[in-house]
User: Which sequence fits this backbone?
């Protein structure tokens, strides 16, 4: 039985830590959450030798052990708690060759924790180009560690890294920076009070301002020997500590690191000049966005039609190949259309994540943040709100989580509250089918409508942000700092892993809800409370039907549906939604959409295929749906009204849940839910009444 | 000695001191230390924020933060 070696992968953002993780673990990755909070927990495994299996933890990127956010806090919680199940045997600190100095600050801190540590200097392939030379032997001696040059891009140095991991027992656990020298009296007293504990670990416990996680921390209070310090004095000491660490690091680098500055100039500065230009900068950004949305719509239509048709066929095949009965019925009419409703998303979600990953990995996203900061501040947000707002066009859940990078709570809260207005991928299938139904397929009408809907979502987000900005009383001092990483050609490998992982998570999470709802709907649609549901056949046959053009079987089915539980439910809300142009079947779809929007098409699929045995795709079925007066149900007015309802209403349980977690109160998600839905109702009402 | 927000585009200076209470630790960790060279690379289109090269780091901060950092111009 091989022993499991727990290894923590640490490093600042933009050091290529995730590339290193991907190179080491390939697809053997697992993404979960830390219990109780939504910080992503990534781990991967591989077999190092016949004696060792490695479990590698990819911790959130952080600049230092002085936590500033919940993501950084996780690192410290784990490393300070020797009882933690993820407490590592070995730590690998990933450093960027172009900014070694800053990575070393983090490394000297890690080294203070007395855990065997390895320094992996990434992007070694750029050394020649940048004119960098490093005396590795000397650096190892100065830092009392093993140093490995790796390149995730060129896939070099990893054999060496694995070899060093195998010999982890020979790694030194000695501290290289003596914390007590920043205030000898204070640390002397601390040592006297806690003689058995590591001074640096105590210092970290004392200085972590906010406790972000639920973990109970040891309180350090006054004793006869030891006086606690004020927050300000502690902050001054932390500044002094950082400065002293840099003095040490500068001294080390002077002996080991040389850079030829004439080579250091790059095309980055030319790119910056263009991309940050006061006119071209914005033009380029909006052109890129337009290109992205256009290609998502273009490229995904073929696979989506294919998926739609395939699931219809599959459903028919099941129906005809298996003995008819409740189970067959449930699978063919409940489960398969339900799963189809989620699989149909894959092309769009994957494409959107692909483009977002390209923007992030190339370093361009930081430039956009820089360009947009001042403008967004007028709406009470931050430049960093760009990422949530843009990724909100994929899914609001990761977008709300991405607001964590915003340091200012007020700016962050406003961003969280308005992000669900962004047109998320879950709205797309609803829009796609409605556009195809009610907007003429000529000229650019269809794609213009879709663009208009994106624009409406964006305008709604900005206007509500502005209203919130004017009315919010909260004011908390904070700062804004963002790293501007050098431009890089994105590593396709990393982009692929991001797309794979995010799409998978989305599909699995949304899939569970959709599957459950499809089954519940099917049960509700195929059962009814009263006798007339069971006796539908007799009732219809006995009736004197004047209209012979309607198939008898269809009549029985639709009578059954009307008298099923779901039919009764739909009918009872019909008076409320009729002014918006919706009938009771749309009402059912609306109700179930409050769990998740994407359920809309699946619900109609379930309702309609329960309703009819004919082989039709869902689109044809919707087009044939008639009102009582014989006019098509999905007229232009109804279609527009329905699309607007989906544009504004907060129909997503997962978003409510994530906002609850991120704001730590029910107040904000409930305000958000009611005001967005109210807005949706009013807008749809006006739209239908005007267009009708 | 001037505050950092007054630096002109492509001008370099040496960080001299800062308002300890108002400056985030994170900025110091990113290399904003007395004695380090600082260059203003770009100003965002509406003058704010500013894009700086501090030592080996490239980062952007808002003017309100920059006002707390004082620099000596290089002669």
Assistant:
């Amino acid at each position: 039985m091989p022993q499991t070696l727990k290894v923590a992968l640490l490093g600042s953002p933009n050091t290529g830590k995730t590339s290193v993780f991907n190179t080491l673990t390939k697809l053997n990755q697992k993404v979960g959450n830390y219990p109780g909070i939504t910080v992503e927990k990534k781990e991967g495994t591989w077999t190092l030798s016949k004696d060792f299996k490695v479990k590698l933890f990819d911790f959130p990127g952080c600049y230092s052990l002085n936590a500033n956010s919940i993501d950084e806090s996780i690192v410290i919680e784990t490393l300070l708690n020797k009882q933690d199940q993820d407490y590592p045997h070995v730590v690998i600190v990933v450093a960027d060759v172009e900014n070694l100095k800053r990575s070393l600050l983090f490394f000297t801190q890690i080294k203070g924790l007395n855990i065997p540590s390895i320094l992996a200097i990434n992007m070694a392939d750029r050394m020649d180009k940048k004119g960098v030379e490093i005396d590795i032997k000397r650096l190892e001696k100065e830092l009392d560690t093993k140093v490995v040059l790796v390149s995730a891009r060129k896939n070099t140095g990893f054999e060496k890294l694995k070899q060093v991991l195998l010999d982890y027992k020979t790694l030194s656990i000695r501290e290289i920076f003596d914390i007590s020298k920043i205030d000898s009296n204070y640390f002397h007293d601390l040592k006297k009070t806690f003689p058995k504990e590591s001074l640096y670990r105590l210092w970290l416990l004392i200085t972590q301002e906010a406790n972000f996680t639920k973990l109970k921390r040891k309180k350090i209070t006054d004793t006869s020997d030891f006086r606690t310090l004020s927050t300000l004095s502690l902050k001054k000491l932390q500044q002094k500590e950082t400065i002293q660490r840099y003095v040490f690091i500068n001294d080390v680098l002077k002996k080991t690191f040389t850079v030829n500055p004439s080579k250091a100039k790059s095309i980055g500065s030319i790119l910056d000049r263009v991309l940050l230009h006061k006119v071209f900068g914005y033009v380029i950004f909006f052109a890129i966005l337009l290109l992205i949305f256009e290609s998502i719509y273009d490229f995904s239509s073929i696979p989506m039609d294919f998926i739609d048709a395939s699931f219809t066929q599959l459903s028919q095949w099941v129906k005809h190949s298996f003995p008819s009965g409740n189970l067959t019925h449930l699978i063919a009419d409940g489960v398969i259309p339900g799963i189809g409703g989620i699989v149909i998303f894959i092309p769009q979600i994957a494409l959107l994540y692909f483009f977002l990953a390209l923007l992030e990995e190339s370093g361009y996203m930081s430039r956009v943040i820089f360009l947009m900061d001042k403008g967004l501040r007028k709406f009470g947000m931050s430049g960093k709100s760009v990422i949530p707002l843009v990724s909100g066009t994929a899914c609001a859940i990761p977008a709300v989580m991405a607001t964590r990078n915003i340091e200012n709570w007020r700016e962050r809260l406003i961003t969280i509250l308005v992000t669900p207005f962004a047109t998320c991928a879950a709205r797309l299938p609803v829009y796609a089918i409605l556009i195809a139904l009610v907007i003429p397929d000529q000229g650019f009408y269809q794609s213009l409508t879709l663009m208009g809907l994106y624009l409406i979502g964006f305008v709604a987000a900005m206007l509500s942000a502005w209203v919130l900005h004017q009315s919010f009383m909260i004011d908390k001092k904070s700062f804004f700092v963002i790293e501007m990483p050098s431009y890089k050609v994105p590593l396709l490998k990393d982009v692929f892993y991001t797309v794979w992982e995010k799409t998978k998570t989305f599909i699995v999470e949304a899939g569970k809800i959709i599957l459950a709802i499809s089954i519940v709907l099917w049960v509700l649609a195929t059962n009814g409370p009263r006798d007339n549901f069971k006796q539908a056949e007799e009732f219809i046959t006995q009736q004197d039907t004047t209209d012979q053009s309607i198939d008898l079987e269809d009549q029985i089915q639709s009578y059954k549906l009307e008298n099923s539980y779901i039919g009764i439910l739909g009918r009872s809300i019909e008076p409320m939604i009729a002014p918006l142009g919706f009938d009771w079947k749309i009402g059912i779809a609306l109700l179930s959409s409050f769990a998740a929007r994407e359920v809309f098409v699946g619900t109609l699929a379930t309702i309609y295929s329960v309703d009819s045995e004919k082989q039709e795709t869902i689109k044809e079925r919707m087009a044939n749906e008639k009102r009582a007066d014989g006019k098509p149900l999905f007229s232009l007015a109804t279609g527009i009204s329905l699309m607007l309802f989906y544009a504004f209403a907060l129909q997503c349980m997962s978003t409510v849940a994530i906002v609850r977690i991120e704001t730590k109160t029910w107040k904000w998600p409930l305000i958000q839910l009611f005001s967005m839905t109210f807005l949706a109702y009013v807008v749809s009402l006006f739209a239908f009444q005007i267009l009708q | 000695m001037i505050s950092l927000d007054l630096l002109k585009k492509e001008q370099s200076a040496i960080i001299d001191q800062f308002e300890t209470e108002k400056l985030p630790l994170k900025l110091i960790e990113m290399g904003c230390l007395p004695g380090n060279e600082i260059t203003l690379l770009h100003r965002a289109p509406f003058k704010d924020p500013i894009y700086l090269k501090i030592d080996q780091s490239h980062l952007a901060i808002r003017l309100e933060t920059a006002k707390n950092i004082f620099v000596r111009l290089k002669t």
The mean pLDDT of chain A is 84. The longest helix of chain A spans residues 280-321.
